[in-house]
Design a protein that fits this description.
By secondary structure, this protein is an alpha/beta fold. It contains 14 helices and 23 strands. About 35% of the residues lie in helices and about 20% in strands. α5 runs parallel beside α6. The mean pLDDT is about 95. Bound molecules: nicotinamide-adenine-dinucleotide. It comes from Mariniblastus fucicola.
């Protein structure tokens, strides 16, 4: 047993990886899935895969629990989420370290991920007293009109490997205070952090005498993933993952008139103007491109630099990249851990070759690191223009640097990709900054000035346009997707006037 699991008070991880009404479901015939440490290739633990029979049982129970949970007053639902946030606070370090161990992000980022879970719980507690609808003035005398928000139903949450627990929490904390129950299918690349999170949830829900609120079904893409997509019992599917899979998810769920919340790929750019504070810019670029080994949806993949300062920016980046220590993500000196799988390493190598064949020149990096684990060098490639390879999202630490002549040209390059997640500009000129943020500026869901593309706070709505899927989760009014809106008109007069002045009979 890994010591982190002991610290998390987890006695068995493979006694049953599905959680239903009565707790972990024992299945002696279940197949087992290895949780692999990407730094060593070794198995950390094994978890049980969910069979179709177990899946059906879990969803039945999740649907049944919704009938009770929807009637619990929202502030009381918030009280449970407050306790979940506190339980996460108590487990901040071991859960964060487990995220680093299984996913490969460095310890500070693993702990930061759990901190995000805590932050969204805090947000959701406040929200539980603020699920506000509007009132409207009726055109009919003696009538009152308003809208209210009701719980939607059991929600399916399918998450990506790179934020193995935070993505679940952005959905789960809001869905729970909105009165929904939910089932989670995590990435098969990060099942152990999901099991650990479920253990924490179980203790909190048991203290509240609640069951069937949070359920977990770990399984392959068709047995569990496909069933979730097609399941009429789940009115909303929140999907986080690649645009390729997201496109299929969108049409499949729409085919049964289900709703989707899509958080898909990004191809995020930073623009560097000649008047930028380069000290800030270099720090923002390095964190954005190298952090999480380039495996964030908001990672900086494209750097658009004014032609007058491109040589200086590249020289400074080269020096900064030489300082990046690569290795064990749990070691305090490490700044970059491994990629998630050997296939990701292979993909990165192929993409670098392709970018060079399209006219790119290698500034630094480009190699894999021999030995155990999926380690690569962070890589910078100078491109003469934005080529076919550059417009694709590669989930690896590759930064393409492209020159531009003026801000209009920079915005045009920035927007000429299929994705629309995050973007930023470094400038000290107010007019340029405002132009970038205007309706004719960045076309992304996130646009920043003098900070990088990654590292969003939970208070704002998170998501993007075009092939990023259009969904928004986390802060602002993202909660509305987890509820159904109802418009109510009440007649308190003695008459029955019709709308639009219609006379009938
Ligand atoms: P992925 O698309 O390979 O997998 C995402 C999830 O979908 C996993 O749980 C996977 O098992 C599941 N899945 C795959 N095929 C399926 C199928 N046929 N039916 C049902 N489920 C299926 O993505 P990934 O490699 O885990 O994550 C990286 C991608 O996710 C990147 O493109 C990244 O940009 C994106 N991402 C986006 C956001 C965002 O908020 N926009 C956040 C994190 C990651």
């Amino acid at each position: 047993m890994n010591p982190l699991l002991t610290k998390l008070n987890i006695e068995t991880v493979n006694a049953g990886a599905c959680f239903g009404h009565d707790g972990w479901i024992e299945d002696s015939t279940a197949e087992l899935l290895d949780s692999i440490n990407p730094s060593t290739g070794e198995t950390i633990a094994q978890v049980q895969l969910c069979s179709t029979a177990t899946y059906d049982r879990v969803i039945d129970e999740t649907a049944e629990s919704f009938k009770t949970w929807r009637s619990v007053p929202a502030p009381k639902r918030g009280a449970l989420i407050r306790d979940l946030g506190n339980a996460l606070r108590e487990n901040l370090e071991p859960l964060g370290e487990l995220v680093s161990l299984e996913m490969g992000k460095i310890r500070a980022e693993g702990i930061g991920e759990v901190q995000e879970m805590i932050d969204i719980c805090d947000f959701a507690v406040g929200l539980s007293r603020q699920l506000c609808g509007s009132t409207m003035h009726s055109e009919r005398p003696g009538h009152r009109m308003y809208e209210q928000w009701h719980p939607l139903g059991p929600v399916g949450i399918i998450s990506a490997f790179n934020f193995p627990v935070a993505v679940w929490s952005w959905n789960a904390a809001l869905a729970a205070v909105c009165g929904d129950t939910m089932v989670w299918k995590p990435s098969p690349l990060t099942p152990l952090t999901a099991v650990a999170t479920q253990h924490i949830c179980n203790r909190v829900t048991a203290d509240h005498g609640v069951s069937g609120l949070f359920s977990l079904t770990i399984g392959d893409n068709e047995t569990v993933g496909g069933r979730i997509l097609d399941d009429e019992r789940l009115p909303l599917i929140s999907f986080t993952g690649s645009s390729k899979v997201g496109r299929m998810v969108a049409s499949r769920v729409a085919g049964r008139f289900g709703k989707t919340l899509l958080e898909l790929g990004g191809n995020n750019a930073i623009i560097v103007e000649p008047d930028a504070n380069l000290d800030l810019a270099i720090r923002g670029i390095v964190f954005g491109a190298v952090g999480t080994a380039g495996q964030r949806c908001t990672s900086t993949r494209r750097l658009l630099v004014h032609e007058s300062c491109i040589d200086e920016v590249i020289e400074r980046l080269k020096k900064a990249y030489a300082q990046v220590s690569i290795g064990d993500p749990l070691a305090s000196s490490t700044l970059m851990g491994p990629l998630i799988t050997p296939e990701s390493v292979e993909k990165m190598t192929g993409v670098i070759e392709q970018a060079i064949s399209e006219g790119g020149s290698l500034v630094c990096g480009g190699d894999t690191i021999e030995g155990q684990g999926n380690f690569v060098q962070p890589t910078i490639i100078r491109m003469p223009v934005q080529t076919d390879q550059v417009i694709e999202e590669t989930f690896a630490p590759i930064l393409y640097v492209i020159p531009y002549q003026n801000i209009g040209h920079a915005i045009q390059i920035q927007n000429s990709v299929p994705q629309g997640l995050s973007s930023s500009i470094f400038t000290t000129n107010l007019l340029t900054a405002e132009r970038f943020l205007s309706a004719t500026g960045s076309d992304c869901g996130i646009a920043n000035v003098n900070i990088g593309t990654s590292g969003a706070e939970i208070g704002g709505a998170f998501g993007g346009e075009k092939e990023t899927g259009g969904g928004r989760e986390s802060g602002s009014d993202s909660w509305k997707v987890y509820m159904r809106r109802q418009t109510n008109t009440i007649n308190w007069s003695e008459d029955l006037p019709l709308a639009q002045g219609i006379q009938f009979g």
